[in-house]
Amino acid sequence: MALARSVAVKLINRSISATSIFSLEWAGARRVQAQRVRAFSALMSPPSKAVVYEREGPPDSVIKMIELPPVEVKENDVCVKMLAAPINPSDINRIEGVYPVRPKVPAVGGYEGVGEVYSVGSAVTRLAPGDWVIPSPPSSGTWQSYVVKDQSVWHKISKDSPMEYAATIIVNPLTALRMLEDFTTLNSGDSIVQNGATSIVGQCIIQIARHRGIHSINIIRDRAGSDEAKEKLEGLGADEVFTESQLEVKNVKGLLANLPEPALGFNCVGGNSASMVLKFLSQGGTMVTYGGMSKKPITVSTSSFIFKDLSLKGFWLQKWLSSEKATECRNMIDYLLCLAREGKLKYDMELVPFNNFRTALSKALGLHGSQPKQVIKF
Question: Is the dihedral of CA 103, 108, 110, 114 positive or negative?
């Protein structure tokens, strides 16, 4: 018995080197085979938690949070792990079914945001895992933890950018920038006038104008806290801030002191507030309307057209973004993010964990009074 064991041990020892070589060759062949299999198998995203709605209607009634299955990452696709995304009024309007351009239902909510590249398709060369990107132009479906879209959708940004500003840089700041540039030539020393000055667009207009040496005349509502709002806007660079009741005078231009009459005005309120913007405008001036928060029509006197030759125009960022201006849009995004990094562009936001989405939504719907911009953090 002992002899048998000894022979067996000797046989094993003599064959061990050959066996090891065979094993290594077999393992190598398996690795090659596995690589070939992976080359032909689909790259998939992780499962994604998402806020979806299957029909249009009141957002707090129709949205729900579900887990979506993995999505194939094709050769030109980029899988992005979302970092943050805001709840904008236009997002709410899309869910309600009242926004002119909206996705087909069922749909994932959200329209802008910032994320980190998680994986890329085999044909993607300009982006790599770890890069920070934003969809530019904006793209529906940002209220989910992972987004898979063609590489052309994503714009790489500096990772030094404050996350919440990167998530919100397009819809509001870009609107402000485009309106300052698209309707008349403004030079340092010129003035603009606007209502809705406490809105994010309004705050961005004040700061970008100040950065360019342009004066701003700002109109705010009469309400509790108006003194604090005035102080805040002046801290951002506003030259003049008036409540609507302060402008119930015959000659509003007498309030301007040494500021030049503005040739350009912005209206996001409508009604009597829009009329106040018109009163400030110089001969041949232009008022640009980009919102209608009061839901009241704009009323213009006949004399404003005949004797002052005023022009009324509208601005809708969605239309501008759809006009083959992707490169120009991305250059402006980089410019705005640079201002944010330098502390020259700022506005109030509240970061809310994704799991608390309904709380953020209720604040965005105005159910808790005036609140900062709600930004979801994934």
Answer: negative
- The reply to whether 99 belongs to the active site is yes
Task: Identify the active-site residue in 53, 99, 111, 290.
Answer: 99
Specify the 3-state DSSP secondary structure of 287: strand
SS (H, E, C) 84-128: EEECCHHHHHHHHCCCCCCCCCCEECCCCCEEEEEEECCCCCCCC
Q: Across-strand partners of 194?
A: 218, 266
For residues 339-363, average pLDDT: 97
First to last CA, the chain: 68
Torsion on CA atoms 196, 199, 204, 209, rounded to nearest 10: 20
How confident is the model over 154-180, as pLDDT tens digits? 999 999 999 999 999 999 999 999 999
What is the DSSP-derived secondary structure letter of residue 153? G
Q: Are the C-beta atoms of 163 and 114 separated by less than 8 Å? A: yes
pLDDT at 27 over 70: no
Q: Are strands 191-194 and 264-267 parallel, antiparallel or unpaired?
A: parallel
Centre a 10 Å sphere on the Cβ of residue 26 and count the other Cβ atoms it contains: 10
**pLDDT at position 2 over 80:** no
pLDDT at 341: 98
Which residue, among 94, 61, 98, has the nearest Cα to 295 in the 3D structure?
98
* Token reading at 362: 């209720």
Two tokens, residue 35? 């690589």
